[in-house]
Design goal:
Length: 180
């Protein structure tokens, strides 16, 4: 079974998550391609899809949005999962007691529910390092007040990524088309 893991990453944290998902799916016997969404024009030839993006201001990056919207018919017809990365830090709940990961869901999760009917969605924590910031994002580094509220570090929870990838592999193994 062929699986495409498509991602949109700005600084590499989301790419790392996508590659980890691809690696875990491959270890479970699936044929996996992990590709940057901006390099993909179309999606045919795959039996399943995992699409993810870094999230900024509750939105996926444009290459991931374009990929899903251009290929919605194909993704809706096959098993598809969506993920996002973005929240920083280790807090489980925010100051109001709300789940941090649930609160960080991109707008696209709701929008794409009707468009591609994903089998599952997941938000993962991201990574942030002052020294990697470039372009217009540099204002964060230039403004001490902003820089000081941005937790610095790699907050990706690899056990959660592995577990989610495992659940995808399990679902694909149980799919009728996977039985041959």
């Amino acid at each position: 079974m062929r699986v495409l893991v498509a991602y949109a990453s700005k600084y590499g944290a989301t790419e790392g998550i996508a590659r980890r998902i691809g690696k875990r799916l491959g270890e479970r016997g699936l044929e996996v391609d992990v590709m940057d969404a901006k390099e993909l024009d179309e999606s045919s030839g795959y039996d399943a899809y995992v699409v993810g993006s870094a999230t900024y201001e509750f939105n996926w990056r444009k290459p991931a949005r374009r990929f899903v919207e251009r290929n919605a018919e194909e993704l809706a017809a096959k098993p598809t999962w969506l993920f996002a990365s973005g929240p920083l830090g280790t807090e489980k709940v925010d100051k109001d007691g709300n789940d941090v990961l649930k609160g960080a869901e991109p707008k696209q999760f709701a929008k794409y529910e009707e468009l591609v009917h994903p089998r599952g969605t997941q938000v993962f924590r991201g990574a942030y390092h002052h020294d990697k910031i470039r372009g217009a994002d540099r204002m964060i580094v230039w403004m001490p007040a902003l820089r000081d509220i941005m937790p610095e570090g790699d907050f990706r929870e690899w056990d959660a990524v592995d577990a989610w990838a495992g659940s995808i592999a399990d679902a694909l193994a149980a799919a009728p088309s996977a039985q041959g």
